[in-house]
Structures are given as structure tokens and as C-alpha cells.
Amino acid sequence: MAFFPMFISLQEKEVLVVGGGQVASRKIKTLLLFKPRITVVAKQSTAFVEKLASSGVITLHKRSFSSNEDIKNKDIVIVAADDIKLQQSIFELCLKEKIPVNCVDSPKYCTFIFPSVIVRENFVTGISTSGRAPLVSKTVRKFLEKILPKNIKDVVNNVELIRNSSLKKTKKEKVLEEAVEKLKWHC
Predict the structure, then answer these.
(1) Residue 75's Cα: distance from chain center in Å?
(2) Distance CA 165, CA 29 (A)
(3) Which fold has domain 14-114?
(4) I need a labelling partner for 71 at 20 to 30 A (CA). Which of 2, 19, 99, 150 fits?
(5) pLDDT tens for residues 67-79?
(6) Under a CB-based contact definition with an 8 Å cutoff, are residues 93 and 68 in contact?
(7) pTM of the model
(8) Cβ atoms within 10 Å of 39's Cβ, excluding its own
């Protein structure tokens, strides 16, 4: 069954990432664009994770996952570990505590899907195959990045200003349409 796409604010939310390898690093890199507070629990971690921790950008606990203590007060949990039993265990804990959880590469242990994303300031799009074919999502993302107008963030900012202006509704609609027409497509 397909997952419903929903955009939520992660700013200042408590996010737990279990695992510190390359996959976890990619997830953390994407998450950081949305300003959450990230805690990583992993016995081993990449140089990227270590650098983020040493600079205070994330919190790193170099140890094994510790069930209830690690998920306590977390808003979202990402499991980027190859251990399927650990994934299942964390999934069940999160279900019980009503915490959204994503176990990378295991859709059956996910209550949400971590999409392939394109971020251009306030313009964000997520691409998902509901966890069935991540390579397809990644390939489509790369294609869309090539054709996406370079000026999209400027157009979004301009449209926001127009929407918040005191122009009359009929005039505002025309000005908004003109602003959006300034998108420079690459296809």
C-alpha cells in the first residue's frame, strides 16, 4: 500500500538515529537541512558523524542501542542498522510509544518513509516508492534536480511576499500568476 505524503516541521524536534555508518550519515545530512536536534547511538561511526559530534551539531553515544532509555522523549526514530532483529525490536518499541519510526531498507518496520528529497530553501519535494524501490526514487530525484528551475527559491520567496501583501484579491491573483511564470524550466 502506498504511503501518504505529509510534510511536517522537524525544527527543534528530537530525532534519534540508530547506527553511524554511511547510510546513517546520508540520513543525518538530509535531516540537518530541517533543523532537528539529532542524537546518534552507534558503536562505530563515520568520520562525518564524528565531526558533527565533535563540533556539537549532533549528540553521539558510542554504544549499543538501549531500548526505552534511548527512545525516551524522541519525536522520530531512524534505524540505519543492518541488524533486522534490532530493527524489529525498535519498531515494536516505537509503535508502543507512538513514535514515528523508519527502519532503512525494511518497509515492514516503518510507520513513515524517508523520501528522496530536493531542497531549495522553502521549496521541498519528496519522492517515494513507499519503500519498495528506493533506487527509482533516487533516479527520479536526480532527473528532477536537473530540470528544476534554478530560480525556484527566488520565485517562492517572491510569491510569499505577494501573498502577504495588501493587494486586492483580483489584482493579487494576476500578480501571483506573473510571478510564477518567471520560473525558468530546463527541459
Answers:
(1) 13
(2) 35
(3) Rossmann fold (3.40.50)
(4) 2
(5) 889 999 999 999 9
(6) yes
(7) 0.92
(8) 19
CB hemisphere CA count around 184 (13 angstroms):
4
- Amino acid, single-letter form, for residue 55: S
**Cell 558533527 sits on residue:** 52
Query: Given pLDDT bands bounded at 50, 70 and 90, which one contains residue 146?
Result: very high
The phi, psi pair for 169, rounded to 5°, reads -55, -45
Domain positions in the chain are 14-114
Question: Which value, to the nearest 10 degrees, does the dihedral of the CA atoms of residues 139, 142, 144, 150 take?
Answer: 180
pLDDT the model gives residue 134? 94
What does the alpha-carbon distance between residue 130 and residue 102 come to, in Å, rounded to a whole number?
12
Cα separation of 150 and 40, whole Å? Answer: 34
Question: C-alpha angle 39/104/47, rounded to 5°?
Answer: 50
